[in-house]
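Reminder: ligand-aware prediction takes two inputs, not one.
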Amino acid sequence: MFIVFEGIDGSGKTTQSKLLVNYLKKLNKKVFLTKEPTYKIAGNVIKKALDGRKKLNSLAIQLLMMAERSEHTEEIVKMLKKGYFVICDRYFFSTIAYGSAENKNLYDALFDFNLKLFPLPNVLIYLKVRPEIAIKRIKKGRKIFEKLNLLKKIEEKYEEILKDRRINKIVKIIKINGEKSIKNVYEDIIKEINKVFVKYERKNV
Ligand code: ADP
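Here is what comes back for the chain with adenosine-5'-diphosphate:
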């Protein structure tokens, strides 16, 4: 089963993906935790672009992310075939949301491209946190207002993706209120993921 975490920066993806991995391991499942970007192909360029040391437009950044994803998904598929649960902290929904936040024209192109080229996850866990709260958690934005405005646009894009029929008919979407305590968010995720397991097991009997 392929599970991805999405949400704006500071929404708790890294924290909760690790907790989910621990939960699954306790159930004796084979688990592979991974994240994007992998930084394996264009690592330095992507890092510089993300922290503002190199100016790249949104399409250029996302094309680099997709080059990495092309290699990354090979590894993901390999692990899925071996029977692993794959938990991925960010996936192509990030490309669509971040890539189209400033340049709305990119939404459909990025959506189609990623949908056609890369495997869909079984489950998408979206951690919803208001940008004002997320930004307080990360506290590293230099131009904080710029960043806040951008996060607001990204959040809107995520909401658009969750409503998009191209995925919400196929992928199980779990939307979680990420503003609760780490423990409560975790419990909400486990409750929902257990429902998915029950359905999945029934289907595979
Ligand atoms: P992301 O991977 O989405 O950027 P992180 O999991 O790295 O988010 O969390 C960002 C920061 O917020 C970390 O310092 C983390 O400990 C903290 N954090 C995560 N979840 C919560 C929560 N539910 N409430 C308060 N702080 C949180």
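Strands lie at 2-6, 31-35, 85-89, 123-128, 172-177. The pocket of adenosine-5'-diphosphate is lined by residues 7, 9-15, 137-138, 178, 181-182, 185 (CB under 6 Å). We will return to this case in the review session.
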